[in-house]
Amino acid sequence: MTQTQAFHTHGLMAAMRAVLAALLAGAVIAMGLILAAFVTMAAFIAAAVGLAGAGAWWLYSKVRGRRPARRAPQVLDAHRGPHGWPVDGDQPEERS
Quick check: 54 and 42 in contact, CB under 8 A? Predict the structure, then answer.
């Protein structure tokens, strides 16, 4: 019996392949978990920024107070006077 036959290199190579496959699978799973954690953290940060913005807008609206209601535009009613048409309600000067 030779030394190569007694060492069983096929069994050792199969064991090394199994260990390498386990390491690779563990690395892929760990990378997936880390990616999921980063995506979740980014979602939490975006939600926190949104809540902070909404809170700031709410506080701004409370400090600013109520705005008066917008009025309809004023319609001018012009009538022709003895000296022509008045502009924006101004009365023309009287001539003597």
Answer: no
Give the 3-state secondary structure of residue 86.
coil
59 CB-side CA count, 13 A: 6
Q: Which residues contact 89 (CB under 8 A, 6 or more apart)?
A: 76
Q: Are 81 and 91 in contact (CB under 8 A)?
A: yes
Q: From CA 48, how far away is CA 46, in angstroms rounded?
A: 5
Predicted local distance difference test score (pLDDT) of residue 7: 61
* Sign of the four-CA dihedral 16, 19, 23, 28: positive
Average per-residue pLDDT in the chain?
Answer: 83
CB distance 86 to 77 below 8 Å: no
Three-state DSSP at 84 gives: strand
pTM assigned to the model: 0.50
Q: Output the pLDDT for position 42.
A: 97
